[in-house]
Amino acid sequence: MPTDPRSQAAAGLQGARCAGCPVTVYPADDACPRCGGPTAPVALPGTGALWTWTVQRYAPKSPPYQPPPGGFVPFAVGYVELAEDVRVAAVLDLGELDSLDDIRIGMPLSVAAGPGVPRARPITPAEERS
Hints:
Elements: H1 5-11, E1 14-18, E2 24-25, E3 39-43, E4 47-56, E5 75-81, E6 87-92, E7 108-112, E8 119-122, H2 125-129
Parallel strand pairs: 6-8
Antiparallel strand pairs: 1-2, 1-3, 4-5, 4-7, 5-6, 7-8
């Protein structure tokens, strides 16, 4: 039975950990990509560091992409490295950053599941202190 994306967003990022070797993956899978052994569901942390990124300068294939009313606008995407060397592909929501020039490898990010690809946003200095 398909999972409602809204319930996944409420639950956070759900990965899988292998029972036989030290591999954790996202998205969750029933089999380990390294050894083929069984995995168990695991909640992943919601913070990490930007591992790499790029700018999506062309509209994704439609369908499934639905252009917004104002048309396509380029956006940043990247890999957020979480604990246990798990890397999650995410759309980068710039938030308070002024431009793409403010994005830096290693910057701390908060990442959350949602419909489609996860979304990541910069962690503010106040959030880092708490």
